[in-house]
């Protein structure tokens, strides 16, 4: 520093001349640094210089200012160099310390075999250090460590690739336990540190490996526990666990719902149980004796009783249980048993021989046709012999096909027990029979054999070949025109009648012309485009193949009846028959029938009109007869009263006959409507019986009435039901001898009310039973009965209008029984009335 001051002084002295020229200023004094002795000398010098005049001082001041700036710059430079030297020394010392620390950390880091892989930020090149011999041979390139598939199995290698990618791109750390292809257990840890992605791979051994394996087992056990808890919570079946004292320790939501608890805690506090006391006792006994319990029990859940499969096992010091809804399975099992039994009964009725062998190849079922087919002893079959024993016995009796290697043949037959599809074969037996054998694998194991005697079928097949040869001759001799067209539309077969009927050339038809060509040839006789289009479509169609009748009226006045018939091989047969004469006769018969129907309708209309016209004057006559018989009109002589009584009876009979004819005509015209309402059965029988009381008294006939208790009523037309019963009773009284009994009874069945009227008359011959319900069909059969024969016709008509039925049972000489069924179903009444 002192050297600098001395230099400055010399500089000032040398600059005196400059001060005289006014180039320096007094401001330089302020820039000088303060120093001890050197500063004092500088001040003295400056004092001497102050003696210069002002102009000289100005020059001196400027020079001193420039000198001061240079001094300050030199001082600052000096200080910077000193500070840099100090920093450099300290930095070298720090680098030495860091190098020592890095060596110490490196020695500590690689004290055990491991591999470090680091990727600087933004750089895809990895730096690899450590002992790679733990994953690769020593002479391998370090970069091969990055090919994880070379030293790891496929799945861990893929897992490692994904983890490294996530670390490098997203900074996601990881810790994996890997097993190499050579069976070594490694630990891979990845972290993002200081902008670098670092992966550390080391071998797990000793305590560390045990700890890692323990952690893995703990995690697996924890995951398994959570999975089981989730499954139990989502399960629709009640699941529970109990402690050593039998108290509920766990229950899933299904158990809580089944016991109608609010929560698991509520079920535990209230000690709610799923099973009743008897079933719980049985379950506790089973757990105590056999450490498990399995039974199908009824459980009431939500007010509904259902069947559940309850399973419980001892686990540790407690037990766990589950109740699986088996109601549907129980119902299906019962249905399956019933179906199997019905199936067996059906098989037992088949004419084909059926034998069912189970999974152990033992006979489980056979029908009587099987026993008779092979003529086997029932005792032998009932002993459930195996398949081989049955075949051996049949072979010993020479009932099986002769085989050069019977063992190989039997082994091939028994391949059906391992097959999945049905196999078919034909056996030609030594006795000349041919059997069709179908072997079907059973879903539950075993095989079902189906034997059919096809001897006649094969014989028929042989005969069929002979029939084919006769076919051509037969077709040629037919009067009907026949032509067969293939699926390609070309003619394959024809007979001479077809050629003659359509006036075609036989040589042209032998060239197998297309149907369109044949259509062009036939246009001169029949040119309806719609019919020909229908024929073409039927011949060339693939789907919706069905018989199509045709009727062709040709230009020459002839009428042909045709039929389009698809054949099994895809061909189509056309047949044509000349029905010109038949059509003419049919037209005549149709016209005659229409005339007869018109005449019959005129008869019905006439009867209806006459009956209506007769009823009006009859009503007047009956009215005046009643008026004359009234005492208020004056007294009558006995003869007049007798004549008036005859008139009254005759007019009443004539009016009843007229009403019956009118009712029958109305029914026949479809205009009769029932007035439906409640019909009291007892009251109806009483009203019908009142109408025949005088005839019962006259002929000394007793009426026996039998009405089932609480028979009640049914829906019907009461007036018409009374009319039915009256006609039946009148008919029975008319045919019954004096001093006999006529019976009427009523009973209710599930769907109807049944009226039965019986008599002890002469009975009805078998050839007359179907005619007794016809109009005007009346035969006395040697009895006192006389009438127009309309009563039973009305009975059948009214009963059928109600939707019911009438039947007659009669034995000649023993009487007649008439039974009427009136349905109680209102829908049947409504349909009948309509």
UniProtKB/TrEMBL annotation:
InterPro entries: HATPase_C_sf, HATPase_dom, His_kinase_dom, HisK_dim/P_dom, HisK_dim/P_sf, PAS, PAS-like_dom_sf, Sig_transdc_His_kin-like_C
E.C. numbers: 2.7.13.3
CDD domains, A to Z: HATPase, HisKA
Protein name (Swiss-Prot/TrEMBL): histidine kinase
Location of the Histidine kinase domain: 609-826
Membrane-spanning residues: 58-78
Signal peptide range in chain numbering: 1-39
Superkingdom, natural source: Bacteria
UniProt entry keywords in alphabetical sequence: Kinase, Membrane, Phosphoprotein, Signal, Transferase, Transmembrane, Transmembrane helix
GO molecular function terms noted in the UniProt entry: kinase activity
Reactions that this protein is recorded to catalyse: ATP + protein L-histidine = ADP + protein N-phospho-L-histidine
């Amino acid at each position: 520093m002192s050297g600098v001051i001395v230099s400055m002084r010399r500089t000032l002295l040398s600059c005196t001349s400059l001060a005289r020229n006014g180039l320096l200023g007094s401001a330089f004094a302020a820039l000088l640094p303060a120093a001890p002795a050197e500063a004092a000398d500088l001040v003295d010098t400056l004092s001497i210089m102050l003696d210069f005049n002002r102009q000289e001082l100005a020059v001196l001041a400027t020079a001193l200012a420039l000198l001061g700036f240079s001094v300050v710059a030199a001082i600052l430079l000096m200080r910077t160099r000193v500070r840099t030297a100090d920093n450099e020394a300290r930095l070298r010392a720090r680098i030495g310390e860091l190098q020592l620390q890095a060596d110490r950390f490196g020695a500590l880091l690689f004290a055990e075999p491991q591999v470090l892989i680091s990727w600087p930020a933004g750089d895809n090149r990895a730096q690899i250090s450590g002992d790679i011999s733990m994953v690769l041979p020593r002479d391998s390139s370090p970069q091969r460590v990055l090919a994880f598939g070379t030293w790891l199995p496929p799945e861990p290698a893929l897992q490692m690739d994904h983890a490294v990618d996530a670390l490098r791109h997203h900074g996601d750390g990881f810790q994996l336990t890997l097993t190499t292809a050579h069976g070594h257990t490694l630990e891979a840890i990845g972290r993002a540190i200081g902008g670098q992605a670092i992966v550390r791979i080391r071998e797990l051994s000793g305590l560390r490996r045990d700890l890692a394996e323990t952690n893995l087992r703990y995690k697996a056990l924890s995951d398994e526990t959570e999975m089981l808890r989730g499954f139990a919570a989502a399960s629709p079946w009640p699941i529970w666990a109990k402690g050593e004292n039998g108290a509920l320790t766990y229950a899933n939501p299904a158990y809580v719902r089944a016991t109608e608890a609010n929560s698991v805690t509520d079920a535990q506090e209230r000690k709610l149980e799923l099973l009743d006391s008897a079933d719980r006792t049985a379950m506790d006994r089973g757990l105590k004796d056999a450490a498990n319990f399995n039974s199908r029990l009824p459980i009431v859940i939500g007010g509904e009783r259902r069947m559940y499969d309850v399973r419980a096992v001892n686990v540790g010091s407690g037990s766990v249980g589950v109740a699986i809804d088996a109601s549907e399975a129980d119902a299906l099992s019962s249905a399956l048993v019933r179906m199997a039994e019905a199936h067996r009964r059906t098989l037992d009725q088949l004419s084909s021989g059926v034998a069912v062998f189970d999974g152990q190849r033992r006979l489980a079922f056979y029908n009587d046709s099987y026993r008779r087919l092979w003529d086997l002893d029932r005792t032998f079959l009932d002993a459930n012999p195996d398949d081989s024993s049955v075949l051996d016995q049949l072979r010993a009796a020479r009932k099986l096909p002769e085989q050069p290697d019977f063992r190989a043949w039997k082994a091939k037959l028994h391949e059906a027990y391992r097959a999945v599809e049905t196999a078919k074969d034909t056996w030609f037996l030594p006795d000349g029979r041919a059997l069709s054998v179908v072997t079907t694998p059973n879903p539950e194991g075993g095989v079902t054999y189906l034997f059919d005697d096809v001897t006649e079928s094969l014989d028929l097949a042989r005969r069929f070949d002979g029939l084919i040869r006769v076919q051509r001759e037969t077709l040629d001799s037919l009067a009907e025109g026949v032509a067969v067209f293939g699926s390609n539309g070309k003619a394959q077969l024809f007979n001479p009648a077809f050629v003659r009927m359509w006036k075609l050339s036989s040589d042209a038809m032998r060239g197998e012309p297309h149907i369109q060509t044949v259509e062009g040839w036939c246009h001169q006789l029949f040119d309806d485009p719609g019919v020909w289009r229908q024929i073409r479509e039927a011949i060339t169609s693939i789907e919706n193949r069905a018989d199509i009748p045709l009727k062709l009226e040709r230009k020459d006045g002839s009428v042909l009846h045709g039929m389009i018939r698809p054949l099994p091989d895809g061909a189509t047969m056309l047949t044509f028959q000349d029905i010109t004469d038949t059509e003419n006769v049919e037209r005549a018969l149709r016209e005659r029938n229409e005339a007869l129907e018109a005449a019959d309708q005129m008869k019905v209309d006439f009867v209806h009109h006459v009956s209506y016209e007769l009823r009006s004057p009859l009503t007047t006559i009956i009215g005046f007869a009643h008026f004359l018989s009234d005492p208020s009109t004056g007294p009558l002589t006995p003869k007049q009263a007798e004549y008036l009584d005859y008139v009254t009876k005759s007019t009443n009979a004539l009016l009843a006959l007229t009403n019956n004819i009118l009712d029958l005509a109305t029914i026949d015209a479809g205009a009769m409507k029932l007035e439906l309402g409640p019909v009291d059965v007892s009251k109806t029988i009483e009203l019908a019986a009142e109408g025949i009381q005088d005839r019962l008294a006259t002929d000394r006939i007793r009426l026996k009435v039998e009405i089932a208790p609480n028979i009640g009523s049914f829906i019907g037309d009461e007036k018409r039901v009374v009319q039915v019963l009256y006609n039946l009773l009148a008919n029975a009284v008319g045919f019954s001898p004096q001093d006999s009994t006529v019976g009427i009874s009523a009973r209710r069945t599930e769907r109807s009310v049944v009226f039965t009227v019986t008599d002890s008359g002469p009975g009805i011959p078998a050839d007359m039973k179907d005619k007794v319900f016809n109009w005007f069909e009346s035969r006395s059969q040697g009895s006192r009965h006389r009438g127009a024969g309309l009563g039973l016709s009305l009975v059948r008509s009214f009963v059928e209008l109600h939707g019911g039925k009438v039947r007659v049972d009669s034995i000649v000489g023993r009487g007649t029984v008439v039974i009427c069924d009136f349905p109680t179903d209102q829908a049947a009444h409504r349909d009948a009335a309509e």
